[in-house]
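Why does residue order matter? Because the sequence determines the fold. Keep that principle in mind as you read this record.
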Amino acid sequence: MAEYFKEVKKISFKGKESKDPLAFHYYNPEEKIGDKTMEEHLRFSVAYWHTFAAEGRDMFGVESAARPWNSFSDPLDRALTRCDAAFEFMSKLGVKYFCTHDRDLVDEQETLRETNKLLDKVIEHVKEKMEETGIKLLWGTANLFTHPRFMQGAATSCDADIYAYAAAQVKKALEITKELGGENYVFWGGREGYETLLNTNMELELNNLANFLHMAVDYAKQIGFNGQFLIEPKPKEPTKHQYDFDVANSYAFLQKYDLDKYFKFNIEANHATLAGHTFQHELRYARINNILGSLDANMGDLLLGWDTDQFPTNVFENVLAMYEILKNGGIAPGGLNFDSHVRRPSYEDIDLFYAHIAGMDAFALGLKLANKILEDKVLDEFVEKRYNTFNSGVGKKIVDEETNFEELESYIIDKKVSLPKSGRQEYLENLVNRYIFG
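Structure:
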């Protein structure tokens, strides 16, 4: 079997003083942070699609990276060698999880039957590599957005045959995820939306989408798949308006259609940016509603209004993300999946290692700092003091729902009301920076 990354040995932790670019400077998988190791807290996962299937294409240019494992003309050979390269990479990087779409594992064939037949052959090889390396499947999913048939949606298509095709594809993807021991299954509605309402029956599309998700839940029960179902929100791009716009919008959809008991959320930083939110906002909203399931670890470029999927090297943002995860009590059975791809000019195979090391170190540092902030209670104490008027008197009656408009009017009508406490945003941002700068 070929070795694709001959110049790379297993990446090890060497500490922040090391100058070795092929080493971890902050991520020490065995280091205890609280009651868990870093590895247990972060549950890093490699994205099969960006890392092993993508080759640097963008809308203005062809592939810039000639990945040797994708050079075979025979689809089975190409799938098997891609698998070999993936598990070699993940083993040397030291991650314990990967995530994949069905069409990352094999290229689509002429019919669904032919594609499924090819998948069955490749899955056996994937299982062998998983057993050999101990690497697990964090989550599986179906690609319902790349093929032209899905240009107007999958579960929200205007064509019943395409809806049926999408259902059959998800059925197979669920079977694969169960067979590989996947801990979660993700729905990302990349084309589930519309370009214009002039040609769209929104009510029918939303009803059909809800029915699709109910059928998926029913089939998972039928085959004994006990993994967590996840929704991954994204407001736009490729579709002008996608129905799973953000966490709040998607949660309302799940509640309306009695699906909320079955789903949590896989939240991506770059998708939060496109929705006009911070990553922390989306994580906070999910956390306080007990629907935080997993993370796609990346970041966007605030100067570009599209999904750049860059590796997450912004430590400030990572501190705030890990703050929410720690407040959540952890992220398992979810994890931090690097839904990130190297920049198009970073076309050499070794750049895949540099990129993942950068993201893993940045999140490891974010974890350590967020844990210290929580231990010192500096943010908790500030927030508690800011809202302390709700701890007694009329404030406590408001919180306990023991008052009404008439009573509140009587209480306040002759009282001179002062300004609220200062929010001290700049002070708090500097406080977080002081933890980062040490």
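The radius of gyration is 24 Å.
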